[in-house]
Amino acid sequence: MSDLRELYQEVILDHNKKPRNFRRLEGANATAEGYNPLCGDQITVYLELEGDVIRSISFQGAGCAISKASASMMTTSVKGKTRAEVEALFDRVHKMLTRELDTKVNSHELGKLAVLSGVCEFPARVKCASLAWHTLNAALEAKKEPVSTE
Ligand code: ZN
After folding, report:
1. Total domains in the fold of the chain
2. Residue 52 C-alpha to ligand 1 middle, in angstroms?
3. What is the pTM of this model?
4. Which of 65, 77, 89, 134 could bridge 16 with an S-S bond, Cβ 3.0-4.6 Å?
5. Which residues form the domain of 11?
6. If you measure from the C-alpha of residue 65 to the centroid of ligand 1, how many angstroms do you get, rounded to a whole number?
C-alpha cells in the first residue's frame, strides 16, 4: 500500500469521525444545498461573507465518509480566503480529482487537500469528493436552486 493511500484512508476516517465545522452557522448570509444522486450524499453549506472574504463557514448533511470528509476539509481550507482564492483552489481541486493535475508537482499548492487525490483510484467516488466544492460555489454565487452533481 502506498503512503498516499494510507494517509488518504487515515484522513478520511479522521474527518468522518470528527467533521470540522459540522453545524448550522448562526449569522450565515449565504447558503446552498448540494445533492449527489449517484451516492445519496446531501450537504448544506453555510457561509458568513464579509465583502469578498469568507469569515466563517460550516456545513451539515448526510452522506458517505468521503463526502463528509471532503466537506470537512473544504471548510478548514477556505476559511479566511477571498472569492478569487477559493475559485483558484476549487479549480486545482477539480483538476486533481479529474486527474488533469499532477499532485506530485502541485501538492505544495494544495496542502492537505492533496490527500484527496487518493479518491482518483475510485472513479465512482469522485463526485462524493467534489460535492462540497460545487455546493460552496453555489453558495458564493447565491444560487437558489439546489445543485446536483448530475
Ligand atoms: Zn458519496
Report:
1. 1
2. 30
3. 0.90
4. 65
5. 3-148
6. 7
